[in-house]
Amino acid sequence: MLEQRGEAFACRHPxxxxxxxxxxxxxxxxPSVIELNIGGVFYTTTLKTLISQPDxxxxxxxxxxxxxxxxxxxxxxxxxxxxxxRYVLDFLRDGTVVLPECFxxxxxxxxxxxxxxxxxxxxxxxxxxxSRASGVITVGYRGSFQFGKDGLADVxxxxxxxxxxxxxxxLCRDVFGETLNESRDPDHGQSERYTSRFFLKHxxxxxxxxxLIEQGFKLAGSCGSGTAGCGAEPKPGVDAEENRxxxxxxxxxxxx
Length: 256
Fold this sequence. Notes:
By secondary structure, this protein is of the alpha+beta class. It is built from nine helices and ten strands. β1 (33-38) and β2 (41-46) form a beta hairpin. α5 packs antiparallel against α6. The longest helix is centred in the middle third of the chain and has 12 residues, at 119-130. It is elongated.
């Protein structure tokens, strides 16, 4: 009978995998404090928290209506994303979820919420995305190419001196968080304003683009130009070949 029930559950809910079909318990068999193994990440919470959403898979499991397995330490095991489960647990505890700045896995978390049948969490993730302010951020950089040494003269590496950020202050802070350097901006106390004096603490252009895309921005336009470095004598200590390849590029990102 248990085997038939497990097979039926596997057909209805394949996301939990065949390994979770070995144990079936009644609601009264579960302790008040539950130890979990979610994809190899361990959590401790209460039975009350896990069954707080009546129509969820977790409620079905921890009220004894669906089977679950235990690992070698006796923890209840689910073969799901263990890192993202922390946000699922936050939602079960508080009925809402607060995602960190520059959170990059909204789609994966939404998928986890759907697998656990938590429509409230799905809506909370979607609502947070809809509530983000529209605006424009411009990213620019001045760069060159650094040439290889010791027999690698034909190898060129991109060399950026600084990535500049322009836009509304609150928007720039929301997108770039702790990677934003505001030390050259004179008006620290005013947030509802625009600035062109921010720059990033790193020099990885693709990292900046990833952060913008994760926050819902799309590239609207770009431009680039050389700096005519070959027409002037380079400053002391500046490689003449690098100076020849100096250029400046800007990228305009928009969120509607």
